[in-house]
Each structure stands twice: as C-alpha cells, then as structure tokens.
Amino acid sequence: MKSYDISELDILVLESDVLVRKLLTEVFKEFGVPTVHSTSRPEMAWQIFETMPVDIIFGDWSRGLDGMEFLHKVRNDKSSPDPFVSFIVVTAHSGTENVCHARDKGMTEFLAKPVTPKMIYSRIVRAIESNRPFVRASDFFGPDRRRKFMSMIPGNDRRNKAV
After folding, report:
1. Across the chain, what does the average pLDDT equal?
2. How many domains are contained in the chain?
3. Within-domain flag for 117
4. Is 125 in contact with 1 (CB distance < 8 Å)?
5. Are 66 and 102 in contact (CB under 8 A)?
C-alpha cells in the first residue's frame, strides 16, 4: 500500500458509539491528523460540515444513527458546501445488500466494524487513489459505482448500442 502524508486532512466523524468515536479520533491523531471533528448527532455534523473545511467524512450507519440519511444530504442538499467530499460509511452491517445500498446512496468507500488502524488507513488511501468521476442521474449523485472502467473491460460497451 502506498504511503501518504495525511496530516493536512480535515476529518469529520459522525458515529453513534462513543468508544468507536474515540477510537477513530485517536487513530487519526496517531496518523498525524490534527483536525478531527467528532459528533454523534447528524445536525451537529451538518453544522460542522457547513462551517469547517472537511476532506473526508466517516459516517456511522447503525440502529442508532442513519448515516445513509446524512450521506444523502451531503450529496444532494442544495446547501451542501461540498457534495463531492469523500464519504466513508462505517458499519457493522456489512452484508452485500448493505454495501449495495450505501453504494447507491453515493458512498466513496465502505468500512466494516470492527475496525483497525490499517483498515482505516487503507480506506483513506482508496478514497485518495480512486478519484472516480461523479455521476448525476435522476435518483443518484455520487462517485461512479463501477470500479472498473469500460476501457479496462474487453468487448463492446453494450450501453452504447441503439435500442
């Protein structure tokens, strides 16, 4: 895995569990990240997002906190200061249907609990390196959901065929 200096990042953590919130904050501090905004309340997270520069959001998706609602607001609200911000969904519910739902809401990366510093760092690196273009459709705005781009897939692009 490539090494990056992430000490200049501003990170927002929206997490319902106080221990996980503290763990994430401490891990970022160990990574040299001086600015970590942390809260368990979506309305406070939105206020931080509107008033402070944020490079990456780590958003919880649990029974006590619907990070998908917050993600949708970040991507689609007309007053969103940065709908293109990297958004890493953090959840213990890591089944395929949950990953697909988060992808369809516009997540950048997915992080399954329990987390380790290596897993956290790897998602930050993937968010930095992926640099996928954003797509706007009638019911979706977010990073292109495809991980492989058409130039990398052999054969003709069937989406360009006349119907």
Report:
1. 86
2. 1
3. yes
4. yes
5. no
106 part of a folded domain:
yes
| Global pTM value | 0.83
Q: Which domain holds residue 20?
A: 16-27+72-140
89 belongs to a structural domain:
yes
C-alpha count within 13 angstroms, C-beta hemisphere, residue 76: 16
DSSP 19: H
Q: What is the pLDDT of residues 62-117, one digit of tens each?
A: 887 888 999 999 999 999 999 999 999 999 988 899 898 888 888 999 999 999 99
Asked if pLDDT for residue 29 goes beyond 60, the answer is yes
Q: b or e along 77-106 (b: 16 or more beta carbons within 10 Å of the residue's beta carbon)?
A: eeebeebebbbbbbbeeeeeebbeebbebb
Handedness of CA 18, 21, 25, 28 (dihedral sign): positive
31-40, 101-110, 148-157, range with the lowest pLDDT: 148-157
Residue 65 lies in a domain: no
